[in-house]
Amino acid sequence: EFVVRKRYSDFVKLRAQLIKAQPKYRKLIPNLPPKKIVGKFVPEFIEKRRKDMEYFLTYVLLHPVLGTTGVVKWWLID
């Protein structure tokens, strides 16, 4: 188990970089939860977003191709 401390915008950039690096897997890369402007500090919203982003990252990391790309490796250590 590990903790990743990244902003929403970092996840958006990661997704875009993955699509650019592995375009044939574009449809397999999960969408991120939508960005919300109003109510973004509501605990229920924060927890749902956290879970959705955790799903995104887990899926990417466990995928045999996406999880081994340099894009993902650099994103994790940056």
Would you write up a description of this structure?
- Keywords: Cytoplasm, Lipid-binding, Membrane, Transmembrane, Transmembrane helix, Transport.
- Belongs to the sorting nexin family.
- With 78 residues, this protein is mainly α.
- Helix content is 54%, strand content 0%.
- The chain is built from three helices and no strands.
- The protein has helices at 8-21, 43-62, 70-77.
Short description:
By secondary structure, the chain is mostly helical.
* Level-1 CATH class name: Alpha Beta
Determine the strand fraction and express it as a percent band. Answer: under 5%
Structural class: mainly alpha
Report on the biggest sheet: none
Q: What global shape is seen?
A: globular
Distance between the termini: 18 Å
| Average pLDDT | 93
What is the N-to-C order of secondary-structure elements (H for helix, E for strand)?
HHH
Q: CATH fold name, please?
A: PX Domain
Rg from alpha-carbon coordinates: 13 Å
Q: Number of domains in the coordinates?
A: 1
The CATH superfamily is Phox-like domain
Task: Identify low-pLDDT runs.
Answer: none
Helix content: 40-55%
For the secondary structure, the number of strands is 0
The appropriate CATH architecture is: 2-Layer Sandwich
Q: Counting H and I runs of at least 4 residues, what is the number of helices? A: 3
Transmembrane segments: 56-77
GO molecular function, one term: phosphatidylinositol binding
GO biological process, one term: autophagy of mitochondrion
Keywords: Cytoplasm, Lipid-binding, Membrane, Transmembrane, Transmembrane helix, Transport
